[in-house]
Amino acid sequence: MFKQKRFHPGFVLIFILLCGYLLTNIPAKDISADLDWTTAFLENCTVIMAGKEATIDGSIITTHTADCGVCDWTWRKVPAADHKPGEMRKLYHISQIKTYPPKEGLKWDLIKKDLTGVEIAEPAHTYGYMHGVFGYMNDQQLAIGESTIGNQRKLNNPTPAAKTDITMLTLLAMERSKTAREAIQLMGQLAEKYGYGFVDGGEMLAVADSKEVWIFEIMPAGPLWTPESGKPGAVWCAERIPDDHVSVCPNESRIGEIDLNNKDFFLSSSNVISCAVENKLYDPASGKPFSWKQAYSPAEGSAVSSPGRRARLWRFFDVVAPSQKFKPDTPNMNLPFSVKPDKKISVQDVMRLTRDKCENTTFDPVRGIRGGPYANPNYYGGTRTIGTNKAEYTTVTQCRSWLPDPVGGIVWLAWGGQDTACYMPFYAGVTEIPKSFNVGDHWEFNRGSARWAFDYADFHAQVAYVDAIEDIRKAQQEWEAGALTKIPEIDKTAAELYAKSPAKAIQYLTSFCLDNAAKVVAAWWDLGDKLLVKYNHLGYYDPEKRSRGRGKAAPDLWRKAVRMMDAWIE
Length: 570
Prior knowledge:
Layout: H1 9-24, H2 38-41, E1 46-50, E2 60-66, E3 76-78, E4 81-82, E5 88-92, H3 107-110, E6 115-121, E7 125-126, E8 129-131, E9 135-138, E10 143-148, H4 166-176, H5 180-194, E11 203-208, E12 213-220, E13 234-240, E14 246-250, E15 266-268, H6 274-278, H7 292-296, H8 311-320, H9 347-354, E16 393-399, H10 405-408, E17 410-415, E18 424-427, H11 450-463, H12 465-500, H13 502-534, E19 540-542, E20 547-549, H14 556-569
Antiparallel strand pairs: 1-2, 1-14, 2-16, 3-8, 4-7, 5-6, 8-9, 10-11, 11-12, 12-13, 13-15, 16-17, 17-18, 19-20
């Protein structure tokens, strides 16, 4: 046991400054503590959205970070199908978080045991789509991204009376909707009729097509709701993002005051205000205008007052519209729904944003000694950044109106933490995805699972991060930027083929996506091997020269902090 002999003057100074900082930066009461528990559990699920006039090429872009850290990560492709009159579609309870041991089978087979007891008629045709935890894109260019936002606890409905959850709703939207508006109305109507909740609380979806993008938010209607009540089993609202604007949802409700007379920008359930009044979440006699987020999912605090836990909203606006000089101490509830970016953004810009870690700000996770001797931003957990090392995967979707739907839609998929991952394109019309995407589990290493290739490289990068991340960026430049460079030519060839033979165009796109993904996964397995050798024993092994050197030296500040602490515990 160490024996404390004296306080080093430098340590005393640090202690005084730290106490002063804490006393002057105590966060205000955070009403989100009264919200549904899932907000705290899934709190790095960032969704970025861009309208068609806000992007360089006219794409409508959405993202989603599946950030659970323990969730099922497997993906699958559901083919389009024709149905006979009388065929029925079973509804299942699908937990975002629940996983199953691989020996028991795949999640998407096992959920069929969790029947709700509800069946709905199949339409004559259902669309093909890709999905992971949620439905992400169908062959009509309908795209979705998700962020858990929580709700006032009194609205929770964990009872079996609620037959729909957010995952089930997104899958039904993928199967049955061609446009964002159709998807919003469908999900809203099904939730109202059959009840929403059970495994989910307040949720936000970015719902996009090739013409527009919406923020759709939905809440349960309370634990006493039953179908026999005659009331809607959910409350929901949607607001369209202006075409020349961008927006973000960082696990916080984004819809404020609403104008239900403006159907071009707002959609909602019939009980959008009455439910708040009945539950004493809004008082019409107050004279205050109704605010959706203030009533149903208030999230008080700012980037500064949190401190840093609510930094993502401010950070996004500060990056895309620095001319507006948004202040980090501005309450998040007061930040705008959307902004016009200072300059139009590209899909590559959005990919970079998904990797953002508040660099060069007071919330930077490598500021001071936070990142340790190797400036690793994944050590410090105080700041919630857009990029997160516990992502299952991240998606970036593009919807492009000037191309046929199977060609115009793209899902860019990156496995694991964004900083060490690689985005791979999958066109909306592909008929299959790699088999290695269908399998895998956090608790069992599996070289047959694509996700493990990226975790393998990521794990070896964490040891000597400041050096290893440069190796990873070189690989990203080769494979990710390389794919982005190829896309215009792939688009052109596929569009020309589609005009003559849609089947041949789809076959061409499927072959390209499968081949690219196979090469990227193989490259990341190889990258992991090379990182293991290169940074073994915290050295710097050069296989070509057969020499061992040193990487970048630890920062002086970190070394000084170690010496001060050593002196204190002597």
